[in-house]
Amino acid sequence: MRFLRYVLPLAAVLPVAALAQDVIDDPYIWLEQKESPRAMAWVEQHNQRALKVLGGDPLYQGLYDEALKIATAEDRIPMPAFRNGGIFNFWQDDAHLRGLWRRTTLADYRTGEPHWKTVLDIDALGKAEGKSWVWKGATCLQPEERLCMIALSDGGEDATESREFDLATNNFVKGGFAFPRSFQRYDWEDANHLLVSTNWTGDDLTKSGYPYIVKRVTRGQPLSAAREVFRGYKDDVGAFPEVLRDGTGDTLTLIRRAKDFFHTETFVLDGDTVTKLAIPEKASVSALVTGKAIVSLDEDWATGDRTFTAGSVVALDLAALKADPGKLSPALVWQPGPRDALDGIATTKDRLLLSTLDNVNGRTFSVSPRPDGEWNRREIALPDKLALDIAASDDRSDQVFLTAEGFLTPSTLYLADATSDAAPDAIKRLPARFDASRDVVEQFEATSRDGTKVPYFVVHRKDLKLDGSTPTLMTAYGGFQVSETPYYSGTIGKLWLERGGAYVLANIRGGGEFGPGWHEAALKTKRQASYDDFAAAAQDLEARKITSPRRLGIFGGSNGGLLMGVEMIQHPELYNAITIEVPLLDMIRIAHIARGASWQGEYGDVDADPEVMAFWKRLSPYQNLKRGGHYPEPYIFTTTKDDRTGPQHARKFAARMEEYGLPFYYYENTEGGHGAGADAKQAAVHTAQMMVYFTRKLMD
Q1: Given CA atoms 129, 132, 135, 140 in this order, what sign does their dihedral have?
Q2: Does pLDDT of 23 surpass 80?
């Protein structure tokens, strides 16, 4: 998730008092103590029922074996990254559950069986150090990319420990840079200096739980000697450094002060001088290319005699920007149409790459500046009606890896030259994981309560009987401007579609499928629009007789878990099964659980805004469960190590259901972070439990 600032005004006295009363009236506050003996005993008790019923089902072992086989298959595409003059990949399989960081050459990678050399074995490292390490990525010093900061997480949580690693020796640097466990961000200034935002003293986190003090750390000096270069505020989401570089050696050092999840002040750092960059707060400097700073806009930008619309991409001359960050002259690079949205930005040495959506179908463009200030744009020839992604790009050359996939189309990895008109070269293809010959994909539109047309995809048998008898799984996300696009899932295909089920992905408001406006239409107290969209898609499925309430199950995680909770409360008549994963469910206490305070830009501030408090009192799933209510029996899943949404929401919701005598299944993995598990075996347990649950509810 992303970034916030809120100042508690005097007008907030009334809702804060109301919140205090809610705390007094809440009998399950003790479950918010994440790892207390009492809470963990409760978790173990409820885990045992899920293990006994779902794990004891005759279908379970076969589903688990299939899920694990797909997740650890040796013929998966090893997704590449350009680094240190070679191709790097992070790989997990049955023998390396926590993973290998490994490398090869581009020429070798293009062969059918590359000869990988191990750089770092995370399983072996964890065993040697007695830790449950989970890989969280590497940040390497450009352009050589020999020195890297490796981020490691204990059990999958977002907080990391970071250490310097040398790719010339494949070892951690003795006496090198090292930062203890914290929520932290950092980037390299040069070989001897890092800009770091971390919890310096133990009390240097915002109310959202993120760091807000940026310091320059010098090689060979203790962290206590680091020099402060920027300080945000405790009420911010956080402050984070970033050093952008392009293929010609230009650099731009930025500090982003996140006032809330979507409003950010951007500053240019030159030595010790910090100057505010005059771009909108809902805009981001996304990349550098050929002396241009590329800015993506999530709000209109009126400057001079021009207005650039939200969703557009503009460019700034880097030299002029550095000379005067307060006086900017943007040039238009790309502007969306009514059904378009920006989906991704990357760069090569000489080209800007844009990934876009056209009615939720992928497009990819290679873009270059012209001497007159305009930009040339050429669409890269890739298959139509699929999800397209920029997998990796190289700032040392103009090579780029691209992927294409769909619900029934396994992923293909392409290698392209961004400067060439030649068609990309398909170099690797994922083998089919299930028989898709009997299936078809259709895209429909539902009409939401306010008349908005909401698209959704349906994957189903070609010979589908329109009598409402098809077991159907439906999901959506609907938040944080995240776009949900078609994707190939061997697990869904093998464990659901092959068994005669249908699958639905809905593109509801709150997401980014149609740009910033689609997101803002469901922001804060307008969020009911997102929930209406989802219900409308379910009703449309049933009106078309693709399925029926008896055969319709829904699932979603994180913000999608909140969506599931609201749907369960508002429309229990539409569904027969609901899986709620790593969710938000107590929207009155959200700011006081895990990273919840950071998302007030998305959900509003219940502590300070009476209108927001009133809205969530009507909608918050935890507060709106009814004793004697007729709800589907949900499967609720979370993890103890989730330090993003936290397991507290799921626990309290389940405890209240238990108090009211309402049936449910609850399972909490003790690792995994904000996901299904810390490794493939843990994730397979969740997948198998969920598929047993849906089978029992929808197919039996």
Answers
A1: negative
A2: no
Closest by CA to 214, choosing from 249, 245, 189, is: 189
Angle at the Cα of 597 (from 595 to 601), degrees rounded to 5?
Answer: 115
Residue 373 to residues 332, 367, 369, Cα–Cα distance (Å): 9, 13, 7
Angle between helices 648-659 and 559-570 (to 10 degrees): 20
Rounded distance between C-alpha atoms, residue 293 and residue 287, angstroms: 6
- In 10 A of CB 617, how many CB atoms? 16
Q: How far is CA 350 from CA 26, 141, 669, in A?
A: 58, 20, 46
State the average pLDDT over residues 7-28.
45
Q: DSSP letter at 698?
A: I
DSSP code per residue over 145-175: --EEEEEEEETT-S-EEEEEEETTTTEEPTT
Say if residue 8's pLDDT is above 50: no
Pairing of strands 412-417, 399-405: antiparallel
- Which amino acid, residue 330? P
- For the annotated catalytic residues, the residue numbers are 558, 674
Q: What are phi and psi of 98, to 5 degrees?
A: -90, -20
**All residues at 6 or more sequence positions from 202 whose CB lies less than 8 Å from its CB, including other chains:** none
13 contacts: CB under 8 Å, gap ≥ 6: none
Cα–Cα distance, 393 to 68 (Å, whole number): 30
SS3 559: helix
Is residue 188 within 8 Å of 142, Cβ to Cβ? yes
Where do we find the tokens 């557009």? 312
Residue with tokens 């450094």: 241
Which pLDDT does position 667 carry in this prediction?
98
What SS3 state is found at 542?
helix
Helix 680-694, helix 60-71: angle, nearest 10: 140
Q: Using one digit for the tens of pLDDT, what is the confidence trace for 131-155?
A: 999 999 999 999 999 999 999 999 9
- pTM score of the predicted model: 0.94
- Tell me how far the alpha carbon of residue 578 is from its chain's centroid: 22
Per DSSP bridges, beta strands 238-245 and 251-258 are: antiparallel
Domain residues of the chain, as ranges? 80-182
Terminal Cα distance for the chain, rounded: 37
